[in-house]
Structure formats: structure tokens, C-alpha cells
Amino acid sequence: MTSQPEKKRNEKGHERRRAAVKTRTAVAPGQRTRAADPARLVAFEVLRAVSGEDAYANLVLPKSIRKHRLDKRDAGFATELAYGALRGQGTYDAILAKCVDRPLERLDPAVLDALRIGAHQLLAMRVPAHAALDQTVGLARAVIGAGPSALINAVLRKVSARSLEDWVEILTAGETDAVKRAAIEHSHPEWIVRALRQSLVAHGRSVEEITDLLRADNDAPVVNLVALPGLGDLDEARKAGATDGELVKDSALFAAGDVGRLDSVRAGTTRVQDAGSQLVARALAEVELDGSSIDEDGVEKWLDMCAGPGGKATLLAALAHEQGAVLLANEPAPHRAQLVRQALDAVPGETWNVRTGDGRTIAEDYPETFDRILVDAPCTGLGALRRRPESRWRRQPGDVGDLGILQRELLTTAVDAVKPGGVVAYVTCSPHPAETTAVVADVLRKRNDLELLDAGAALDAASLPGALEAGHESTAQLWPHIHSTDAMFLALIRRKI
């Protein structure tokens, strides 16, 4: 008779139950969910910098991509994830509020950012739900902790139960206010939706275009490049996949990859700049002056009154160099003035100089001095929401009025600093009438020596033949949904002789 092994019993004599034999996968669960995917980690770092440090996504993202050595594919994923989560923040937060058992403001900010990243993957990216959940929980375990990761997992499972369209339908059910519905559906603050509706009408367009405009704000923009005239070229960018721009000469569209890796970009002879910004700078440089305003030496004097961080100033300086003119770039903040100098280094030094000081005092030092002046006025940036997705959540309605005072002061100073016969370009990256037409009208109303030039015709002349067709307008407004540019406003004001 074969002997049986002695069964183990507890102290009461009861037979102990044997534990079930566990099967293990090649990778233990703890190891699977603690790993932070580098692309998602980059997106998370961007959101943390934006929400925790008031950083700008477009400045943080390239540095984080390089730090984690992402390849082209992962860099593209990280970019789409970071920017998409920021653009969709309003809608995602409304959805998350339905899935969390406490007010969102009581969540740890890092947890909320992780939830936003997970929500964007689940609702707006071609990422399988199981991958979005597992990777987001793994990210949370790696950078936040095991405790919060359980909450994130539970909340995102609730989010994944419905599509984005179904969530929007739930959130807007019974809502009859078109502005509130649009704010939820297109992830814009209500006040910005109202402001953009008003802007369309003020600039002669139909309010029915608001849906197309809001959608354009949420589209991922293609990177616009400009080769500085006479100094740079686009050959390297083309070899890297860029295509020639369709609106303005010396421009290109760069759809994917890190442009900072291009030698020409590092050298500063090729720059990242929206086509709308290129157009307004060229329009000022090319508009005809009254010849009697130019000094006997024939050298035109140009001024960029609000030059930081130096994008338009550098293009203007390159154009000035071509035309034998000189440029003074003014910037009040010393650290931004240094950025302007660095940007201008690509242009021969005899063409430009930098002044650090308040633009509103420049007419005291340089009365009736300049032939061409660019007033790229500080504004709400409502025209660049697609490129700066975080700004829609930072701006407040009161900013419009506060900035309006500064805008009027700067433009008033500019018309004092321009020579009789010279031209001032008033530019904002906002279509809001309180920052555009109202500012120009107020300054013109107080003087009888100013006249509006045809800004639409000037933009047409500065663009590639037949590409823009802005029309003949006293002021001109570009639009993301019409021109695929930022919503740049341009007024050209000549001081009469």
C-alpha cells in the first residue's frame, strides 16, 4: 500500500486548504502597469508644466521630446496627445466631472492631467481602449503613485463606456443656448465663443461660420516655415519632407517631425512663423510710401515697437537688409529683448539695433523718425488658439478691456513716431473688434492727419499671385477656417504730409 503524504492541519486539527496554483505571465502585472511610455510621459510633462507653471506648450514640448529622445513617430504621438488634451480640456473636464465622485478642483492637479491624457486617447485618438487604460495607469503609477492610479483606472473605465459623440449629447441634452452648446461641443469657454461670433459679424462675415471657426481652432496646425529673404533657403526643409507654402513666397509647410533638428532652423536663417504673420510683415515692408518722407540719404528707418520674442522683427530685418533700410527693434522686457537679439543674429548686424524700453515712450526719443512702424500689439491671442491651445483657458473677458488701453497708447505713440508720409501697421493676433477696428477708429477719430490705406490690397500684393484674394478693405482680417492662418488683423495707417 502506497503511503499518502501527511496532510497539514491547523492547531484545531482542521485540514488546511491548499492555495490554488498561480499562473504567471511573462511580465508581472506590477511591472506592466508601472512602466511610463516615453511618448505619454512627454505629453504628461507638457500638461504639468502648462497647468502647474503657466508654461507655454510650444516651448516645453520640443525640449521634452529631445530629453526623452523620441523618434519621429513617438514625437508625433506625443504632440497629438499633448495638444489634443489641451484643446479638448473643456469638454474632457465636463465628461470627467460626470465620472468622478468629487469636484474636479479637489483632485490632485497631476491626477487631473493624467485623466485628461487618458480621456483624449479614449475619445479622440485611434488608440485601443485597453491600451489607453493600461498605459495611462502605468504612467500614473510611475510618476504619481499606486494609490491615485486606482482612481484613474476606475474613472477612465467610466469614460470609455461611451463615445465622444454620446458624451456630448448627454452634456448638451436640453440645452437651448447655442453658445453653451458650442462651448461644450468644441471645447471653448463660453465668453470666447461669444467673442468670436461677434468678431465674424464685425468683420463682415456670417455668424453661421462660427462652427467652422471653432473646428479650425481645434485642428492640429501644420508648422509654417519661412526662409529669411536673401539669407536662407528651404532646400533642407524640402529634403526633410516640407512642401512649399501656398500663400506667401519663401514659405513652407512642415507636417511632421522636430524642425529644431534642421540645421537652417538652428542657424536662424529658416524660422517657424505662421503664414499670417509673414503676410502682415511683408505687407508693411512692401506698401508704397510717399517719397517725400524719406531722408536725403535714401535710407528708410523702420521700427518694430513690440518686437519680443523676435519672429516678425527678424523677417522685417531681413526685408530691410534687402531694401537697404535699417530696423530698430524695441522690447520693454530685458529677457525678451535678449531673445530678440538672438533672433536677429541671423541678419547682418549693420541692419538692426535693439532698444530695451517701454514702447509708449519711444516717440519722446524718436519723434517723427520712422518711415515704417510695426505695432504688433499685445492682445488676447484669440486668433492663435489652434497654436496656443492653453491660452483659451487662461484668458478672461476682462483682459480685452485691460489690453485695449495699452493698444490705444501704443498706436497713438506710433503715429507720433512715424514721419509725415510714413506708414504704421497695427497688427493683432485677435479678431475681436474691441482689439482691432475699435482701437483704430478711436485713434483716427482724435487726429486729422491720419488716413487708412487699403490693407486688403496690401495683403494681396504681399501674397503669392491669386493665393489670398483678401479683397479691397480699409482693414483686413485673416481667418483659420478661410485662409489656414492665425486670425491676424491688419490696419495700415499713413500719416499725411
Automatic annotation (TrEMBL):
Active site residues per record = C429 (nucleophile)
User: What's an example GO BP annotation here?
Assistant: regulation of DNA-templated transcription
Write the protein's name.
rRNA small subunit methyltransferase B
Keywords, A to Z, come to: Methyltransferase, RNA-binding, S-adenosyl-L-methionine, Transferase
List of residues binding S-adenosyl-L-methionine: C306, A307, G308, P309, G310, G311, K312, E331, D358, D376
Per the record, the similarity remark reads: Belongs to the class I-like SAM-binding methyltransferase superfamily. RsmB/NOP family.
What the entry lists under PROSITE patterns is as follows: NOL1_NOP2_SUN (PS01153), SAM_MT_RSMB_NOP (PS51686)
Alphabetized GO MF terms: RNA binding; RNA methyltransferase activity
Q: Where is this region: Disordered?
A: 1-32
Phosphoprotein as a keyword? no
Q: Which organism is it from?
A: Arthrobacter zhangbolii
Keyword Methyltransferase assigned: yes
| InterPro entries linked | MeTrfase_RsmB-F_NOP2_cat, MeTrfase_RsmB-F_NOP2_dom, NusB-like_sf, NusB_RsmB_TIM44, RCMT, RsmB/NOL1/NOP2-like_CS, SAM-dependent_MTases_sf
Q: Name one Pfam family in it.
A: Methyltr_RsmB-F
